[in-house]
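BUG: 3D viewer hangs when loading the predicted structure for this chain

Environment: internal workstation, default settings.
Expected: structure renders.
Actual: progress bar stalls at 90%.

Input used:
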Amino acid sequence: MHKTLLAEFTAREGAEDEVARLILDYARKVREEDGNLTFDVYTKASAPRAYWIFEVYRDEDAFQAHLKAPYGPPFNTALAPLIEEEASVLTFLEPCQ
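Structure tokens produced before the viewer hung:
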């Protein structure tokens, strides 16, 4: 079964350009992962500093491999002071049956 989640965070005022640069660079790397099926970056139309990242991985093993990728910790460290939340808020999703 696919592992699907939504990651959310809000760029601090004045950090919008740096957050966009970081997340788009990170997205390119994640999309190259063998088990990544989708890594789509969105901003909320009515609140462009609010980011929603829709992620789908082949399975739990692929998601765990993603978590162990060497570029993840540096990305999270760089992102943390640029967003309003302490970290990305993750919501794990399951398909309706």
